[in-house]
């Protein structure tokens, strides 16, 4: 089954996406799980470029190119920027958002790295699930290593926020030889500490109230520091829950975490709210991760890389240059 561009244009926009996904699933059954993106998916991307894409990419501050990366779970949409001959750095966003939340970091990080910001498969971005979505930490790690393989890389730097931090940590646990360094901004799970993020998720995804969406987006995007354009754009993103399917983050066994030997930077905002005890995150991290360096992000909430990008960009650069060591 192939949806032509003419066929897509005959349907209302809210019906087009399910048809495209159906076409992708049917094609996947015959073509294998890591084939090149289907024509239906390319059409979906083209429609995205013409509508929401213009709004999204107008906020991207540096030159970029869009990519469709095949994986066993479907096709991952990504935005690539930075130094073409640099080591690959993969950015993985928080649940309920998309790759655009890394816009404040991309210029700085791209000076030395080939930076690729991903739309997590199954979440609110433009990645297309084919057969099924990842449900466990190990399956998200499989998704990530498919991306690394598709890029032709042996090792990459992984940077993740919240859900993205959990995905990055699981990738390091399951495929340690593929991760050269790890940056975790307020991981939603993985470390055995008590979290309260589910109550915030209710106001991000499990509500039809636009005002709640706006409040949650403003809260997670800097609690007042986000511009109106950003807030309204992210409100549209979190309100578009049709088809979003994701696994729920869970803790990782301590004995697995203890085996990680790559450099790890653990960042938590001074105004973080998803942990019952913020200090316990660092205490637990230091006790379980042999090569961790912990830093508070001043004047930052949950999405510290967005709230205080200058600090985060600087500390990540120092960390990757080997200027930071375990306390």
Characterize the structure shown.
By secondary structure, this protein is of the alpha/beta class. The protein folds into two domains: 1-50, no CATH class; 64-320, Rossmann fold, CATH 3.40.50.1820. It has 14 helices and nine strands. It has helices spanning 5-9, 13-31, 39-50, 52-57, 103-109, 137-150, 163-174, 197-204, 210-220, 228-239, 254-257, 278-288, 304-307, 309-320, and strands spanning 65-71, 74-82, 87-92, 113-118, 128-129, 156-161, 179-185, 264-269, 292-297. Strands 1, 2, 3, 4, 5, 6, 7, 8 and 9 form a nine-stranded mixed beta sheet that branches. A hairpin with a 2-residue loop joins strand 1 and strand 2 (74-82). Helix 2 (13-31) packs antiparallel against helix 3 and helix 5 packs parallel to helix 14. The longest helix is centred in the N-terminal third of the chain and has 19 residues, at 13-31. It is globular. 47% of the residues are buried. Residues 1-50 have low confidence and may be disordered.
């Amino acid at each position: 089954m192939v949806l032509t561009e003419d066929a897509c244009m005959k349907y209302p926009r809210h019906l087009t996406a399910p048809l495209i996904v159906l076409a992708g699933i049917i094609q996947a059954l015959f073509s294998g799980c890591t084939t090149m993106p289907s024509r239906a998916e390319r059409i979906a991307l083209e429609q995205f470029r013409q509508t929401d894409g213009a709004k999204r990419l107008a906020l991207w501050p540096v030159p970029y190119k869009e990519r469709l990366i095949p994986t066993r779970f479907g096709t991952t949409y990504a935005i690539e920027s930075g130094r073409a001959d640099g080591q690959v750095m993969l950015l993985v966003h928080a649940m309920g958002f998309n790759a655009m939340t890394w816009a404040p970091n991309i210029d700085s990080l791209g000076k030395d790295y080939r930076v690729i910001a991903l739309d997590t498969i199954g979440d609110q971005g433009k990645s297309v699930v084919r057969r099924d979505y990842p449900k466990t930490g190990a399956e998200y790690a499989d998704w990530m290593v498919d991306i690394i393989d598709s890029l032709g890389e042996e090792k990459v730097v992984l940077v993740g926020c919240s859900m993205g931090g959990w995905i990055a940590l699981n990738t390091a646990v399951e495929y340690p030889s593929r991760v050269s360094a790890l940056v975790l901004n307020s991981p939603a799970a993985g470390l055995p500490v008590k979290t309260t993020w589910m109550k915030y998720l209710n106001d991000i995804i499990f509500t039809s109230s636009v005002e709640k969406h706006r409040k949650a987006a403003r809260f997670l995007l800097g609690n007042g520091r986000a511009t109106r354009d950003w807030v309204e754009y992210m409100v549209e993103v979190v309100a578009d829950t049709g088809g979003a399917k994701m696994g729920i983050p869970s803790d990782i066994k301590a004995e697995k975490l203890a085996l990680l030997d790559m450099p790890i930077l653990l960042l938590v905002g001074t105004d973080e709210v998803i942990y019952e005890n913020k200090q316990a995150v660092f205490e637990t991290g230091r006790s379980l991760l042999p090569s961790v360096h912990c830093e508070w992000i001043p004047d930052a909430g949950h999405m510290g890389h967005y709230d205080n990008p200058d600090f985060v960009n600087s500390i990540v650069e120092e960390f990757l240059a080997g200027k930071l060591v375990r306390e």
